[in-house]
Amino acid sequence: MTNETGTFTRLLSLDAMRGFTIAAMIMVNFPGSEAFVFPTLRHSKWNGLTFTDLIAPVFLFIVGVSIAFAYSKRLERGDAKTPLYQKIVFRSLKIFAVGMFLNLLPHFDFSDLRYAGTLHRIAIVFLFCAILFLNTTWKQQASIGLAILILYWLAMTLIPTPGTGKVMLEPGSNLAAWVDQQYLPGKMWQGNWDPEGILSTFPSFVTGITGMLAGRLMLSNIKPHEKVNYMMVTGFFSCAAGYFWNLTFPTNENLWTSSFVLVTSGFAAMLLGTLYFLMDISGRTKGTAPGIIFGANAITIYVLADIFALFFYLYKINGHTVNTHAVNTLVNIGFNPQLASLLYALFFVGINFIPAYILYRRKIFIKL
């Protein structure tokens, strides 16, 4: 946003939202036991929406907001676009490369390599949205986003899956799965389909676009309380529109359906609006420091979590991995297995907080 002098200032709420989202991502990715996880801390098997399903779209929404904050000032200054394009492409390649590195862990078996994943999608969405932001107005971005959602809906619900003669939205037999089977190289996460596949990446661009629109609003000169009103109202109506679209195009993270985009972007907008009101307007920052610390090096900590997990999930104590040993210990003293698994996940988040805190205190900010 801009202050009274017209200069850009950071949003504490955005930093905290980014950090808490990464912490949530680590928590759901690394439970104490995959066999004992509360239902809402798992991804939906297919249609539906759980807490875990919200995490990835919220982070892509944050990517969009961050793009608006990163490049608005450069556009206003009239900076040359060619160097910006070079930096955007280079950063996207770095994030994608790190995603490939994580997919190779721990055995570095190139014959069984997956070319899709969370970081891969973040890299591609960042590349598309950043270039779009530099070359379009907010109205054009909104129009492009809406067009993508409608075209994706029509394609998925009107075009029969080749070879079947039927329109299907079931796992592995829908149009998106067919496209992945034909054109996505390497291993797919679910055998014959991938939740971060080719066709479903297009509506994920819109998740980033909704974040860019929110970022433009936050950078505007309207009064802070009016920004909150706009965020909450548009967020509510986005969720409502997604709910009704869900009746014909079910909310589904694996397909990243159009209804899923609207519901999750609406939720993200209301979450940002709430944090903005509490932290940036009202100055209520108590308890938000962990989020800000995680958010300062969000992707770096996400990568470290995968590396730390190799030790915690491979090192054995009395024949059991660290996570299994911890869960068994808690269950033996009377804890519910699902709660024990969650407590271990929270402990693992705490382990990752240590390097995040050290980097933050030393003012080391690693930008991939």
Strand neighbour order, sheet with most strands: 1-2
Instruction: Tell me the series of helices and strands, N- to C-terminal.
Output: HHHHHHHHHHHEEHH
> Major β-sheet, in short?
2 strands, antiparallel
What structural class do the secondary elements suggest?
mainly alpha
Number of E strands? 2
Protein name: Heparan-alpha-glucosaminide N-acetyltransferase domain-containing protein
Domain Heparan-alpha-glucosaminide N-acetyltransferase catalytic: 10-225
Keywords: Membrane, Transmembrane, Transmembrane helix
Transmembrane segments: 20-42, 54-72, 84-106, 118-135, 142-159, 198-218, 230-249, 255-279, 291-315, 339-360
Description:
With 368 residues, this protein is mainly α. The chain is 66% helix and 1% strand. It has one domain. The protein contains 13 helices and two strands; from the N terminus they run H-H-H-H-H-H-H-H-H-H-H-E-E-H-H. It has a two-stranded antiparallel sheet with strand order 1-2. A hairpin with a 2-residue loop joins strand 1 and strand 2. Helix 1 packs across helix 13 (337-361), helix 5 packs antiparallel against helix 7 (201-219) and helix 10 (289-296) packs across helix 13 (337-361). The two termini are 24 Å apart. The model is unreliable at 1-8 (pLDDT under 50).
Topology:
Elements: H1 12-29, H2 51-77, H3 81-104, H4 118-135, H5 138-158, H6 175-183, H7 201-219, H8 224-245, H9 258-281, H10 289-296, H11 298-314, E1 316-317, E2 320-321, H12 322-332, H13 337-361
Antiparallel strand pairs: 1-2
Helix pairs in contact: 1-2, 1-9, 1-10, 1-11, 1-13, 2-4, 2-7, 2-9, 3-4, 4-7, 5-7, 7-9, 8-9, 10-13, 11-13, 12-13
Organism: Dyadobacter chenwenxiniae
Transmembrane segments: 20-42, 54-72, 84-106, 118-135, 142-159, 198-218, 230-249, 255-279, 291-315, 339-360
Keywords: Membrane, Transmembrane, Transmembrane helix
